[in-house]
Amino acid sequence: MADCYSNGLMPLAEGIRILLDKVMAVSGNELVPLAKATGRIVAQAIDCPINVPPANNSAMDGYGVRSNDCNAAVTLTCVGEALAGQPYVGAIEAGQCIRIMTGAIIPDGIDAVVMQENVTRDQQQVTLNAGVKSGQNIRLAGEDLTSGQLLFEPGHRIKPADIGLLASLGIATVTVKRKPKVALLSNGDELVEPGQPLASGQIYESNRYALAAMLKRLPLDVDEFGIIPDQPQSIRQAFSTASEYDAVISSGGVSVGDADYIKQILEEMGQIDFWKLAIKPGKPFAYGRLGNAHYFGLPGNPVSAMVTCHQLAVPALRQLTGEHSEPPLTITATTTEAIRKRPGRLDFQRGVAQRSEDGRLLVTTTGRQGSGIMSSLSNANCFLVLEQERGNIEAGEQVEVLLFDQLLS
Ligand SMILES: Nc1nc2c(c(=O)[nH]1)N[C@H]1C(S)=C(S)[C@@H](COP(=O)(O)OP(=O)(O)OC[C@H]3O[C@@H](n4cnc5c(N)ncnc54)[C@H](O)[C@@H]3O)O[C@H]1N2
Ligand code: MOO
């Protein structure tokens, strides 16, 4: 538990390791049409059903020739035409050639294609220079993919290019993992849905909207439970429904305030595996179990909620969906300004990364970095990931940068 660490806070990497250790992919698959498969996770290995291309075909518009005829400058007789979808049928004798278009099947006898820019044509007579190599400008059957080869392993997330590839192979449906069911709730008496008038002491609910927008980009079935008031009985009621889900994400009520009941009731109805991490923002993040569900208790401050969802809940949810994902890549950039930082927590400051005129990668924070300042996140295109034990940073120093992925941009 967190107490073994010098400051009572578990390093983020340790928290992620525990999460990934505990979360297993959901069971259950479904067959979906290709048009609905983007972003879904492959459940059964997909093998290539055909050769790609299926037959030798021309890579250029020009003339199909027999390379043996073309050892020296030569004039050939054009005896026919091959178009993509309309093959040439018939024999081709020595001294003959055919007109051929890109994608057209190479007929028997032809072993090279000469670009039309490199010939002169007079009626049926086609004159070309020497130097035709057997196989030139011919795309061979199976040179891209061979029938039977493995295309996608289980755990692969289907991207737009994959959809194109699968369609090009005639595959119309894919067996994918079922979408995990996620309950999303917000907690706090002060919260009011946007569109309603605000009374004194109230603020607009924003976390559920932001989190739902982010989670929509993952293959999840998210049910929004709305705003749960700061009353133990309301929280218990919501928890008893949510415990049937695969995962629960809440924001708010995980700190030590008098009305912070979430953690307390999670402990009562389920269990807490860890609470409090050495990250900023997001220190009071809690992870545990509630019935069937993995429970991600995000802090209420809006930036903390998004950062902890992105850094902790999302890798775990990806694993729950069955996705085999790699940790995100970070890059190094030069900070344009001095940054204040106290050692002790890994800090996810929000910033803008861009190239300088001389090609260097520079990064500048988006101003005030309080965990309630959503504009710091909204104006950013990256996180500056400032190591746990690092202190103040001078302008011109190198910092680690994590560019926003498709969940944040
Ligand atoms: N004595 C201590 N106080 C606090 C600590 C601490 O260690 N000791 N930690 C602070 C940190 S760090 C954070 S982060 C917050 C997290 O607290 P909670 O998770 O209990 O969140 P709340 O108190 O419910 O709310 C915090 C803040 O966020 C606003 N909020 C909450 N939900 C929403 C929502 N859905 N949409 C928009 N804004 C929301 C809420 O009004 C509060 O202003 O605790 C610190 N305190
Ligand atoms: O972690 Mo809190 O998120 O520092 O405000």
UniProtKB/TrEMBL annotation:
<keyword id="KW-0479">Metal-binding</keyword>
<dbReference type="Pfam" id="PF00994">
    <property type="entry name" value="MoCF_biosynth"/>
</dbReference>
<dbReference type="InterPro" id="IPR036425">
    <property type="entry name" value="MoaB/Mog-like_dom_sf"/>
</dbReference>
<keyword id="KW-0500">Molybdenum</keyword>
<keyword id="KW-0501">Molybdenum cofactor biosynthesis</keyword>
<comment type="function">
    <text>Catalyzes the insertion of molybdate into adenylated molybdopterin with the concomitant release of AMP.</text>
</comment>
<dbReference type="InterPro" id="IPR038987">
    <property type="entry name" value="MoeA-like"/>
</dbReference>
<dbReference type="GO" id="GO:0061599">
    <property type="term" value="F:molybdopterin molybdotransferase activity"/>
</dbReference>
<keyword id="KW-0808">Transferase</keyword>
<dbReference type="Pfam" id="PF03453">
    <property type="entry name" value="MoeA_N"/>
</dbReference>
<dbReference type="InterPro" id="IPR036688">
    <property type="entry name" value="MoeA_C_domain_IV_sf"/>
</dbReference>
<dbReference type="InterPro" id="IPR005110">
    <property type="entry name" value="MoeA_linker/N"/>
</dbReference>
<dbReference type="GO" id="GO:0005829">
    <property type="term" value="C:cytosol"/>
</dbReference>
<dbReference type="GO" id="GO:0046872">
    <property type="term" value="F:metal ion binding"/>
</dbReference>
<dbReference type="GO" id="GO:0006777">
    <property type="term" value="P:Mo-molybdopterin cofactor biosynthetic process"/>
</dbReference>
<comment type="similarity">
    <text>Belongs to the MoeA family.</text>
</comment>
<keyword id="KW-0460">Magnesium</keyword>
<dbReference type="Pfam" id="PF03454">
    <property type="entry name" value="MoeA_C"/>
</dbReference>
<dbReference type="InterPro" id="IPR001453">
    <property type="entry name" value="MoaB/Mog_dom"/>
</dbReference>
<dbReference type="InterPro" id="IPR005111">
    <property type="entry name" value="MoeA_C_domain_IV"/>
</dbReference>
<protein>
    <recommendedName>
        <fullName>Molybdopterin molybdenumtransferase</fullName>
        <ecNumber>2.10.1.1</ecNumber>
    </recommendedName>
</protein>
<comment type="pathway">
    <text>Cofactor biosynthesis; molybdopterin biosynthesis.</text>
</comment>
<dbReference type="InterPro" id="IPR036135">
    <property type="entry name" value="MoeA_linker/N_sf"/>
</dbReference>
<feature type="domain" description="MoaB/Mog">
    <location>
        <begin position="183"/>
        <end position="319"/>
    </location>
</feature>
